Amino acid sequence: MQEYTYKNGVQTCEDTVTSAPSVPVFRQDLEAPLAVGSHVVFSGTPADDVQREVNGQLHVNFSNWQARFLLTCRGGHAPSVRRSPRLYPCRVTFNIGAGDDVAVHVDARLPQRCVVRNTRRRGAWGPQETAAFRPFPFASGRPFVVEALVGENDTLWAVDGLHYCEYAHRNPSPLAAAPGSGAAAAPLWLELIGARDVSIDVRRGEEYPKLAPPWPEVPSRRDLEAPASRDEPSWPPNARALLPQGVPPEHQLVVKGRLRALLHSFRVELTTGCQEWPRPDVALHFELRAYFESYRPRQLVVLNSRSDGAWGEERRQRSAAMIPSTNVNYILIVTIA
């Protein structure tokens, strides 16, 4: 699985998110607590026109917006700074709160092109998380639909129908007010900051991502060297596809790709569904873990399967000798019992 990380250049400045009244804030109190399977849908557009006028002067909220400054020097006069009239939206923030705390804080920062996740408890922020499964999905002026699925141990986040990241529950958890959680009930609320045309919908989820596009089918070729047909899809990183008839007898599943320059890991799975939740059964889990004891001449390959949410016993072997930044072919021979 390809993983994107945007750790460099990320500032620890969550406390400035709600510091200025000019930032649009949409908050919704929850009448019923969140539970496992709760599905929250945020929609809106990153606001690009937030400004306010005080005593005839234009003031820009710099906690949520970035303005361009120009340095000018005329003759022997001291340099002067003037602001360009164009405003740049800096962040869109999604919060799941529990009482006075923030159980899940998801902050999309447009200048750094990263999405930061965190939790605030008793006024103190924890360590940030920034790794994601896809490139940065937000853009100024472009509408978005963000899905959040509350699981037993984590919260899953999708943008425009594609899974983006997951965030393990901390203290407090978004399930803090759920019956039987073992903790004192805390009123929950949802918040979306820095967007316009906002809507928030909460319901029971049956599948996540609910807004996922139709998945393509794995094409069939005569042999390994046969050229691709015109109707074959263009495969993005972290691709998913359907095998409506499974792997036919006397056929092989071939995966082609190019390894990353900084090879960490990747996996190929045959599952009973393309959704992220409920977790599908995994008939075959093939994972190359190049990060584990990377000094050794061959990389670790792990084989496993998952049924009813439980993983079996791993089979490990050091049989891969992958070279970063090279093209590879993986041939998975699937035997139907």
UniProtKB/TrEMBL annotation:
Keywords: Lectin. Residues 211-237 are annotated as: Disordered. Gene3D superfamilies: 2.60.120.200. Residues 26-203, 239-337 form the Galectin domain. Signal peptide: none annotated. It comes from the Eukaryota. Residues 219-233 have a biased composition (Basic and acidic residues). One of its GO terms (molecular function) is galactoside binding. This is Galectin. It comes from Eumeta variegata (Bagworm moth). The gene is Lgals5.
